[in-house]
TrEMBL record:
GO terms for cellular component: peroxisomal membrane
Swiss-Prot/TrEMBL GO biological process terms: peroxisome fission
One Pfam entry name: PEX11
Keywords for the protein's UniProt record, in alphabetical order: Membrane, Peroxisome, Transmembrane, Transmembrane helix
InterPro entries referenced in this protein's UniProt entry, alphabetically: PEX11, PEX11C_met
Protein name, UniProt field: Peroxisomal membrane protein 11C
Source species: Chrysochloris asiatica (Cape golden mole)
Amino acid sequence: MASLSGLASALESYRGRDRLIRTLGYCCQLVGGILVEQCPARSDVGTRLLAVSAQLSHCRTVLRLFDDLAMFVYTKQYGLGAEEEDIFVRWVSVLGNLADQLYYPCEHVAWAADAKILHVDAARWWALSTAFWGLSLLLGIARSLWMVLKLRQRLRNPTTTFSGQPPRGRRRVLELQIQSEMLTLLSNLADLANAVHWLPPGVLWAGHFPPWLVGLLGTVSSVLSLYQAMRAPNSQDDTTSP
């Protein structure tokens, strides 16, 4: 009952519902892609699962129409990162916030073009929104790599101190921070692989992933995100990932 109550609680929040929809959508794409490609006898089931995945993805796209304000408030609060001690983390975060802020309106225009609300080239706007997402992921990867490097340096430094905590507690705090950054790094790498796949043909491996591989990478990223959210239930994301 505790797990059921936890699931119900997660579904009551927008971010929790989005994570679960994302995970379910990518899982359907993974299983559906495998059935279509590897099990001809069950290709009909696989096709239906791929259709479910597409509808869940479309659902999340529509819900992201309302994310701009939350992203703007977060970007405004962070500003130029004056409270950030590390100059590299500061400017990478600022650029990442800018990329995230620009991503949303581009996706909205692409969605409106697909829905025949706007008479513009949808493919161009989808490519632009994906490019901003990929840029944000690259900046996030750079930030996580830098943070892991700095945290490991502090872990090896015997003079590192945290006020009010014993030495063993200080070491455990650093280890948990490194683990969190590594999980974020792996999640961003999986998403980046998919982001490149969705770019126009001719860009690296764009368009070359089969549906099951897109589903696998998305599932890995989603599960890692769910795991981190469960470890820090009080934390809230200001953006959602495609």
